[in-house]
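Predict the holo structure. Ligand: calcium ion.
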Amino acid sequence: MTSSPALQPDPRALLEVAVATAREAAELVARGRATAAEHVDVKSSPVDVVTAVDRASEELIVGRLLAGRPDDGVLGEEGAAREGISGVRWVVDPIDGTVNFLYDLPAYAVSIAAEVGGEVVAGVVLNVATRELFTATRGGGAHLSSPARPEPVRLAGSSPVSLEQTLVATGFGYRVEQRRAQGAVVAELLPLVRDIRRHGSSALDLCSTAAGRTDAYYELDLKPWDHAAGALVAAEAGLVVTGLPGSPFGEPMAIAAAASIAAPFIDLLVELHAG
Ligand code: IPD
Ligand code: CA
Ligand code: CA
């Protein structure tokens, strides 16, 4: 049984829960940084790593969420999968950017999204290294705050005037064949745009584009936990968040682009057979 529309929770209340939980998880992840390399396993390929801290972070997040909201469902990268009965499902990436986490590159984040009836209505992406906090609620805008700037700033992306002036972020999957194909697309794209960035965290890529730090982002074959919170931040910042023509976002291509260049950018991805 799912809740009726009248009983659906307020996205702002769900966001509050998500932010408090993400802050706790970020403390745990930060404490685990120094010894992260001591407990590393591989998953889908030798370059797809998971640490004991990823697992501990997911355990903490799921425990906290369900302690407060025991009827909710959960989907987490490290195995959490629970059907709920409330109509709310949490989608969790306990560390997005695990390779950065291992190397102490300051771009790894806790990402928590709340879906109601299958639609993401609230999301938080908290960069553990910088403590930048990206948040969004559906219809309520996207915001960024940080210890240096605690007052949330509303995000509105960027407005590049042409593809030549578009700074593009992307990422690569973990399978060798796919990486080869993705590298070939980037080789074609690079001479046509301002430059390419590969930050190593899809959640932060989406949020950085929302903040206008990059102008467009695309990546193939993300998982729901990679993009659930970040895509809402990007959409609420006014970006075009979509898939390739005829396909929804993330199936299989995830695109978030400044509205000013979204159409030619998508055309270019089609031309380069990026999908
Ligand atoms: C990965 C990161 C990376 C992206 C990969 C993701 P993980 O997530 O978001 O930027 O390129 O596709 O799997 O493994 O660090 O949680
Ligand atoms: Ca991820
Ligand atoms: Ca992860």
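Helices lie at 11-32, 52-68, 98-103, 176-189, 202-210, 224-236, 262-271. The chain has two domains: 5-154, 163-272.
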